[in-house]
Design a protein that fits this description.
The protein is an alpha/beta fold and 257 residues long. Helices cover 29% and strands 26% of the residues.
């Protein structure tokens, strides 16, 4: 299935069968002051927490016993979301720190620049889908020699070390990302989206994206051989995401020279 639905995600998820989704990637409004068209955060602050409980409850219902859910947020309010997910019955796995070079300096002179966003990873149970993530060793020299640790010989894995909970992916700022950047205020990069899809779901799974926005998670799902079902209130964003998917399909049809 590859489908983006123009509509409310809570109503849409309520129509889905229970326990059939293996991966959910949620990038909800952060409760700041962004304007997403049909959802203006300045007008929604009073209902934000109750609304979060509602969509979190639906994601728990549709997630499979082996499923994972990732939720983007901001340090201001992510603590509320984390507690709500505990209350909904999710099993905590890790808070991932997504860090980037180009920090946000909009908090004023009497504060610190923001150089990270928290990304919550929960599962439905302890029997969850996970394909190990490996990164290159800092020193390639260690691949040439055996290393003794606590009297035992340790041989480096040729695929690299296991990744940790600090993920370094650049935000889409500057000319080098001009081909990926689209007109959306909170677009997530495909690099981090593809990592989540590839390592926390299985090929041919359907990824649920409650808040499609720019469509990055849907594009990542398609790139990694998964299906997707997404919901989005803003019709302009629905078209934006679909245009990115059409562009991906057109590239796939080009002959290899």
């Amino acid at each position: 299935m590859r489908k983006i639905i123009h509509g409310d995600c809570i109503e849409g998820m309520h129509k889905l069968p229970a326990g059939e989704i293996n991966l959910i990637i949620a990038d909800p409004p952060y409760n700041l002051n962004k304007d997403f068209g049909q959802w203006k955060e300045t007008e929604k602050k009073g209902e934000w927490k109750d609304w979060c409980r509602s969509w979190i409850a639906e994601t728990h219902r549709v997630l499979s016993a082996q499923g994972n859910i990732f939720v983007y947020g901001i340090h201001h309010h992510q603590c509320w979301v984390q507690c709500m997910m505990y209350e909904a019955g999710f099993v905590y796995r890790r808070q991932i720190i997504w860090t980037y070079e180009n920090g946000f300096a909009g908090y004023g002179k009497r504060s610190l620049n923001a150089h990270y966003e928290p990304l919550l990873w929960f599962s439905k149970s302890n029997d969850y889908i996970f394909h190990p993530i490996r990164e290159p060793y800092k020193s390639q020299e260690r691949l040439k020699h055996k290393i003794i640790k606590n009297g035992k010989i340790w041989i480096p894995n040729p695929e690299g070390r296991m990744a940790g909970d600090i993920w370094r992916f650049p935000v889409l700022a500057g000319r080098r990302f001009k081909n990926e950047k689209v007109n959306h205020p909170t677009q997530k990069p495909l690099t981090i989206s593809r990592r989540i899809v590839k390592h926390f779901s299985n090929p041919r799974d359907t990824v649920l994206v409650p808040f499609v926005g720019s469509g990055s998670e849907c594009v990542a799902a398609a790139q990694e051989g998964r299906g997707f079902i997404g919901f989005e209130l803003n019709s302009d964003y629905v078209e934006l995401a679909n245009s990115r998917l059409r562009e991906l399909d057109n590239k796939a049809e080009l002959p290899i020279i």
